[in-house]
TrEMBL record:
Classification via PROSITE patterns: PROTEIN_KINASE_DOM
Keyword 4Fe-4S annotated: no
Biological source species: Chitinophaga sancti
Ranges of residues in domain Protein kinase: 204-470
Claim: Nucleotide-binding is one of the keywords in the record: yes
InterPro entries in UniProt: 6hp_glycosidase-like_sf, Kinase-like_dom_sf, LANC-like, Prot_kinase_dom, RamC_N
GO molecular function: ATP binding; protein serine/threonine kinase activity
Identification of the protein by name: Lanthionine synthetase C-like protein
Keyword terms of this UniProt record: ATP-binding, Kinase, Nucleotide-binding, Serine/threonine-protein kinase, Transferase
Length: 880
C-alpha cells in the first residue's frame, strides 16, 4: 500500500456504496484506525512475519465475515480491510495494481501464533466462497493465501535477512520463498500463475504469454493434433472470481458465451475456430485456432512509423484503406447474422501475410435475435465505446458504427480516439482536418461519432465514402497545406492549459496536485484508479510550481488558480518539514528538486524572499547524494545547486559545488567514462543516457563551466563526449547508443533517448567542434519531419523532443529545427481535450488530468512557453 487518502482513488462503478466501518460496528468493533483507503483493527506484536491474505468477492463478503470476524476477535488478531465496497471492487478488478489483486483481508499473526493451526482454521472458515487468486502469494486452500513480509502498511517496507540486515520487502510474482525461511505449513507451496514453459490440461505447452491481464492471460500454446502433427493454438484464460458483474456473472460465463459464438459463427465470418474448453484449478480456458498474423494496430504502427498521414507513401495509404474496408465488410456480415460486436478496435483485427483480415475477441458480442446476454456484458475499449454503450444501454448496430468511426480516427490520425472530445463536434472536425487534410473524410469520421445515433451513417455509406476517398488518394499528388503557428492562439492555449491545472480531476478534494500511482507493478495493463501525492520535481508538486513560476516570469497570468497554488505551496512546506529526514537529496524525486521549486517561486515573487524560505533551500542541500547521475545523484543535485545560486552564499555554494565536481572527476575513467550502478541488474555498468548515465553527468559539467570557467573540466567534458561518440552504434542508418555496456536495448524516441543529445548541442556552443553538431543533426534528421504521435510528455514524448529542437536551432542556427519545433506546437494545439478555458491534454494511461512536469501537462506547457517566448526561459536543466 502507498500512503494516500481515500479521495485519491477514482470511483470505479455505480454500485451502491457500503461503508465497511458500519460493518465493523455490527461486531462491536469500535477501535480501529483509517489508513488511507483501508481500516486497520488491532495491533500486532511483531514487525514482520508470515501474513495471511483472504480473497473474497463482493457477494460473499458479508457471509464470510459473519464467521471470520468473531474468530479474529477471539484470537486477538490484527487485520486490515478496505474502507468500503468500492475499494473492495477495485482490489478484485486490479484497479489498485496487480500486486494488490485479491488482497481484500490482510491478517497479521502474533509472535506466538500457531501458524499451521491458524492456516487450517482460516481455510475451513473460507469454505464455499469465491475470490480471485493472489499472484504474489502461495495458496494454502480455498480463499487463503500467504507470504512472508513486513507488517508495515506504507511503502517502502523492509524485512530482516539471515544476517540481521534490513532489506527491501519485494512483492515477487510468482511467489518465491526467501532461502533462510522454513515453510511452517502442511500445505504444498502452490503458486496460481501460469508461466511460459508450463503444460496445462495435460496437453497444451505454453510457448508465449501474449497478453498479461488480471482477468486472465492470453497465451500461445503448442499441442499435438495427431501422432505426427503439432499445431499452435490460442488459449484465453478466465480467472475465477474476477470481473464479476452485478448479476453474479464472471469470466467463466464470458468464455462460455464466446465458445457458443464461435460454434455458431466460425463458418460464416473469419474468426478463429473453436478447439476446446476446459477448467483447471478453478479457472476456465477457451482454446481457439491460431491465426498467423499481426494486429491492425501493429500494421498501422509499421506503416506510419510516426509520420503524418500526408507523409507516408501512397502504397501504405492504400493498404490501410483496404484493410479498413475488409474490416467493415466483416462487421457488415456479422450484422447480417443479427449480432453486434461492441468491441471494434485496431487490436481486434488480425492481418496475415496475404492481407486477409480476421476478427477476434468476441467477448462483448450481443445477439439481437435472442436478446442475449441479457443484460449485455460490460464494458468495452475506452474511446471506441459509444456513449450509450458506456451506460449499458440496449445494444444496437449504431454502437458498432460509432466504433468504426473511432477505428478510422486510429487509422488516419494515429491517435486513440479517447484523446478527442466528442462533445464539441465542430472543433473535433477541425482537429481531424489538421491530421488527414481531407474535409470529406473528417466529416465522415465526425458523423460516425455523433451523439445522436440516428445521425450516424450506415455501414454501406461508410464503405462507399471510403472507396471514394481511396479513389481520391490513388492519383493524388501530395500538396501539403502549410500550417502556420499562430502566436496569439498559442498564447490562448497556454493560458487555458494553465487555468485547467486545478480542474479535470488533477487534484485531490483538498486541491493538492496528484499523480498516477506508479510505485506498484505494471505487469498487467488493467486501468489504475489510484493516485498519489508526490512532493518531487519530476512527477510531483515541485515541478508544477516550477512551471507556474516560469509562466509568471514571462507575463502569463496564474491568478485564476492562485488558491490551488497557495494550497500546494503550504502542503509542500508542511510535508517537507514533517518528512525531511526521510527524503533523499535527489533532483527528480528528492530535496534538490524541492529546492529548485522554492527558488523559482521566490524569483517569480510568488512567495517572499524570507529567512524561512531561504532556509528550506539550504536544508535541501545539506546532504550530497552518493550516486552520480542526473535523476537522483550528484549531477542532478549539482544542476539544482547552480540554478539556486542566487539564494545561496558564496561560501556554502563553493563548498558544495566543489565537492560535487571533485567526486565526479575522481570517479572518471581514463577513457572518459564512468561506471554507474544499474538497479535492474544490480551491477555497475557504463550507462550512456541522460537521466541515469554519462550524458547527464557531462551535462552537469558543462553547466558548471558556464558558472565557473575551467579548462581542465572542459578537457574532461570533451573526453567523455569522445567516449560516447566512439561507442555509438549505427542503427537503421543513424547513430545511437545502447542503454548500457551490457544491454542490447538502444536509446530511441520511445524511451526519451533524444535527451542524450543535450550535452553535444551545448558542447558545440563552447567549442564550435563540427563533430558534435554532426552527430546531433544525424539523429534529429532520423525523426519524422512532421512527427505524429500521442506520446506528448517531456520524459518520453514530443514535448521533450520539441525542447531539443529549440536548443538545436539556438545552437546551430538551422531553421529546420525551429520549423520542426513549431510543428510539434501545432500538433499539441490540435490535441487539447475538453471545453474552452478548461482544455488539457490526455496523457498516456490517464483518464484524469495529469499536471506533472515530466509526464504530464506541465511539461507540455513548459515546451509551449519556450516556443512562445523564444529565448526568455531556458531548459529546467540549464544553469544559464
Amino acid at each position: 500500500m502507498n500512503e494516500q487518502n481515500s479521495d485519491l482513488i477514482e470511483k470505479s462503478s455505480n454500485i451502491p456504496l457500503t461503508n465497511y466501518e458500519d460493518l465493523l460496528g455490527t461486531f462491536g468493533i469500535k477501535e480501529f484506525s483509517q489508513i488511507g483507503s483501508f481500516l486497520k483493527v488491532g495491533n500486532q506484536d511483531q514487525s514482520e512475519g508470515w501474513i495471511f491474505h483472504i480473497s473474497v468477492r463482493l457477494a460473499d463478503f458479508n457471509p464470510l465475515i459473519q464467521k471470520l470476524f468473531p474468530y479474529l476477535i477471539q484470537n486477538n488478531l490484527s487485520f486490515v480491510i478496505p474502507i468500503n465496497s468500492d475499494i473492495h471492487s477495485m482490489i478484485l478488478n486490479c484497479h489498485l495494481g496487480y500486486i494488490n489483486l485479491g488482497k481484500v483481508l490482510t491478517i497479521f499473526p502474533n509472535r506466538n501464533s500457531n501458524l499451521s493451526k491458524l492456516a487450517d482454521e482460516l481455510v475451513e472458515i473460507s469454505t464455499n466462497f469465491k475470490g480471485p487468486a493472489i499472484p504474489t502469494d502461495i495458496l494454502l486452500g480455498n480463499l487463503v493465501y500467504t507470504k512472508y513480509g513486513s507488517y508495515e502498511i506504507y511503502e517502502p517496507k523492509y524485512i530482516t535477512d539471515s544476517s540481521g540486515v534490513k532489506i527491501l520487502d519485494q512483492e515477487i510474482i510468482p511467489f518465491k520463498r526467501y532461502p533462510w525461511l522454513s515453510w511452517p505449513f502442511k500445505y504444498p507451496q502452490k503458486t496460481t500463475i501460469i508461466q511460459e514453459g508450463e503444460i496445462v490440461n495435460g496437453r497444451y505447452f505454453i510457448r508465449k504469454i501474449l497478453k498479461f491481464d488480471a482477468k486472465g492471460f492470453v497465451m500461445k500454446a503448442l499441442f499435438q493434433k495427431n501422432l505426427f502433427n503439432y499445431k499452435y493454438c490460442i488459449i484465453k484464460e478466465g480467472k475465477m472470481g474476477i470481473a464479476e458483474d452485478l448479476y453474479g456473472r464472471e469470466m467463466e460465463d464470458r468464455l462460455i458465451w464466446q465458445m457458443n459464438l464461435h460454434k455458431r459463427l466460425q463458418n460464416l465470418i473469419p474468426i478463429p475456430k473453436l478447439l476446446n474448453f476446459f477448467k483447471e484449478n478453478s479457472n476456465s480456458y477457451l482454446v481457439l485456432s491460431y491465426i498467423n498474423g499481426i494486429s491492425f494496430g501493429n500494421v498501422l504502427h509499421k506503416l506510419f512509423e510516426g509520420n503524418h498521414w500526408n507523409d507516408i507513401n501512397n502504397k501504405s495509404q492504400i493498404q490501410i484503406i483496404d484493410i479498413l474496408l475488409k474490416s467493415i465488410i466483416i462487421i457488415e456480415n456479422l450484422h447480417k447474422e443479427n449480432f453486434v460486436h461492441r468491441d471494434i478496435n485496431a487490436e481486434n483485427f488480425l492481418i496475415n501475410k496475404r492481407g486477409d483480415v480476421s476478427l477476434i475477441d468476441m467477448e462483448l458480442t450481443f445477439d439481437l435475435t435472442s436478446n442475449y446476454p441479457n443484460p449485455p456484458f460490460e464494458k468495452g475499449t475506452e474511446g471506441y465505446m459509444s456513449p450509450e454503450q458506456q451506460i449499458s444501454a440496449i445494444p444496437t448496430f449504431e454502437q458498432d458504427i460509432y466504433s468504426i468511426g473511432a477505428l478510422m480516427v486510429k487509422c488516419f490520425i494515429q491517435f486513440e480516439p479517447s484523446k478527442f472530445d466528442i462533445l464539441n463536434s465542430e472543433m473535433m472536425k477541425n482537429k481531424f482536418s489538421f491530421f488527414c487534410s481531407d474535409a470529406d473524410l473528417a466529416d465522415l469520421m465526425a458523423s460516425c461519432l455523433e451523439l445522436e445515433i440516428e445521425k450516424r451513417p450506415s455501414l454501406i455509406k461508410i464503405r462507399t465514402s471510403l472507396e471514394e476517398f481511396k479513389n481520391r488518394t490513388i492519383p493524388k499528388k501530395k500538396f501539403r497545406k502549410i500550417n502556420i503557428l499562430d502566436r496569439s492562439l498559442l498564447g490562448d492555449i497556454i493560458n487555458q492549459s494553465i487555468s485547467s491545472l486545478s480542474t479535470n480531476g488533477g487534484t485531490s478534494s483538498d486541491g493538492i496536485w496528484t499523480s498516477l500511482n506508479t510505485s506498484n507493478d505494471n505487469l498487467v495493463g488493467n486501468e489504475r484508479f489510484d493516485k498519489t501525492i508526490e512532493l518531487g520535481f519530476g512527477n510531483g508538486i515541485s515541478g508544477i510550481l516550477y512551471l507556474l513560476s516560469k509562466a509568471k516570469s514571462i507575463g502569463f497570468k496564474i491568478d485564476l488558480i492562485s488558491d490551488t497554488i497557495t494550497k500546494n505551496i503550504n502542503f509542500l512546506e508542511e510535508h517537507y518539514h514533517y518528512n525531511k529526514d526521510k527524503i533523499y537529496s535527489g533532483f527528480y524525486s528528492g530535496k534538490s528538486g524541492i529546492a529548485l521549486a522554492i527558488s523559482s517561486l521566490i524569483e517569480a515573487n510568488i512567495i517572499p524572499d524570507s529567512r524561512k524560505n531561504i532556509q528550506i533551500i539550504y536544508d535541501c542541500f545539506t546532504s550530497i547524494p552518493s550516486t552520480m547521475e542526473i535523476e537522483n545523484g550528484i549531477a542532478g543535485y549539482g544542476i539544482s545547486l547552480l540554478k539556486c545560486n542566487n539564494q545561496l552564499d558564496d561560501k556554502f555554494m563553493t563548498k558544495k559545488i566543489n565537492s560535487c565536481i571533485d567526486h565526479i572527476l575522481n570517479k572518471q575513467s581514463s577513457n572518459g567514462s564512468w561506471n554507474l550502478y544499474l538497479e535492474s541488474s544490480g551491477q555497475n555498468e557504463k550507462l550512456s543516457g541522460f537521466k541515469d548515465g554519462i550524458s547527464g553527468i557531462v551535462w552537469f559539467l558543462l553547466n558548471y563551466v558556464d558558472f565557473h570557467a575551467d579548462d581542465l573540466i572542459r578537457d574532461r567534458i570533451f573526453l567523455a563526449l569522445d567516449f560516447l561518440i566512439k561507442n555509438s552504434k549505427l542503427h537503421q542508418g543513424y547513430k545511437t547508443w545502447k542503454i548500457s555496456s551490457k544491454s542490447r536495448e538502444i536509446h530511441d524516441f520511445y524511451n526519451g533517448g533524444y535527451k542524450i543529445l543535450k550535452p553535444f548541442i551545448k558542447a558545440y556552443t563552447i567549442s564550435n567542434e563540427k563533430k558534435y553538431k554532426t552527430i546531433v543533426e544525424q539523429i534529429l534528421f532520423s525523426y519524422p519531419q512532421h512527427i505524429t504521435t500521442e506520446l506528448f510528455s517531456q520524459e518520453k514524448g514530443i514535448a521533450g523532443l520539441g525542447e531539443i529542437y529549440i536548443e538545436a536551432w539556438q545552437a546551430f542556427h538551422n531553421e529546420e529545427w525551429l520549423i520542426r519545433a513549431e510543428w510539434i506546437a501545432l500538433l499539441l494545439a490540435n490535441t487539447t481535450y475538453g471545453e474552452f478555458k478548461k482544455s488539457y491534454w490526455k496523457m498516456d494511461n490517464y483518464h484524469f488530468l495529469n499536471a506533472c512536469l515530466f509526464n504530464g501537462n506541465s511539461g507540455i506547457i513548459h515546451f509551449l512557453l519556450r516556443i512562445f517566448s523564444q529565448n526568455k526561459i531556458s531548459d529546467y536543466y540549464s544553469y544559464s
